[in-house]
Automatic annotation (TrEMBL):
This is Helix-turn-helix. CDD domains: HTH_XRE. One of its GO terms (molecular function) is DNA binding. PROSITE patterns: BRCT, HTH_CROC1. Residues 1-64 form the BRCT domain. Residues 5-60 form the HTH cro/C1-type domain. InterPro entries: BRCT_dom, Cro/C1-type_HTH, Lambda_DNA-bd_dom_sf.
C-alpha cells in the first residue's frame, strides 16, 4: 500500500508535507507510511477517501482497478453525478417541497429516524415512574462495639525501615 500511496501523491503532484497538511497529520506520519515503517489505519484511509472522492478505494486498499474512479482530468472537480431525467420542476411552499409530478415531501423527512416496534415499546416504558430505594449501608466506626477488641490489640514495639542503599533506621517504642 505504501507504493500505491506514493504513486497517488505523484499523480496528484503532492509532496509528503503538502499531503500531511491536507490530511491534517504530522509530516513525520506520512514519512513513516511512505518508508513502510508504519501501516495506515482505517481512520487514515477513510480520511484519504473523504478528501479525495475520485480516488478508487479498491485500488488504494487492494491494488485492484484504476487509480481513479472516473476520468483523471475530471478528478479535481466536485462530484456532479446527477440523473437529469429525474429532475423536474421543484418548488417550496410552507415548509414542503413539491415536484412537477405532485410528489410531496415534508422538510426533514429524509433524515428522520423511524422507531421499530421494539424501540417504541422501550420508549413507552421510559415514562414509568422510578422508585428510589435507600440502600445506604450504615458506617461502622472504630468505637462502635470495638471497645473489647481494643484491649486485646497488640502494641508495636519496634519499626525497622530499610533503604535502597543498604542502610536502615530502627524505631523503638
Amino acid at each position: 500500500m505504501k507504493d500505491r500511496l506514493a504513486q497517488f501523491l505523484k499523480s496528484e503532484g503532492l509532496t509528503a508535507v503538502k499531503f500531511a497538511e491536507i490530511m491534517e497529520v504530522q509530516p513525520s506520519s506520512i514519512s513513516h507510511l511512505l518508508s513502510g515503517r508504519n501501516k495506515p489505519n482505517f481512520d487514515f484511509i477513510s480520511r484519504i477517501l473523504l478528501r479525495f472522492p475520485s480516488l478508487n478505494p479498491d485500488w488504494l486498499i487492494n491494488g485492484i482497478g484504476e487509480i481513479y474512479k472516473s476520468n483523471p482530468k475530471n478528478r479535481n472537480s466536485p462530484n456532479t453525478d446527477v440523473n437529469e431525467n429525474r429532475i423536474t420542476n421543484v418548488t417550496e411552499t410552507n415548509g414542503t417541497i413539491q415536484t412537477e409530478n405532485k410528489d410531496t415531501v415534508r422538510q426533514g423527512d429524509m433524515f428522520e429516524y423511524s422507531l421499530n416496534k421494539e424501540d417504541k415499546d422501550i420508549s413507552e416504558n421510559d415514562n414509568d415512574p422510578v422508585t428510589v430505594v435507600n440502600s445506604r449501608i450504615p458506617d461502622k466506626t472504630m468505637t462502635e462495639g470495638n471497645d473489647a477488641s481494643r484491649a486485646d490489640r497488640k502494641s508495636i514495639s519496634r519499626v525497622i525501615i530499610f533503604y535502597a542503599d543498604g542502610s536502615f533506621d530502627e524505631y523503638r517504642n
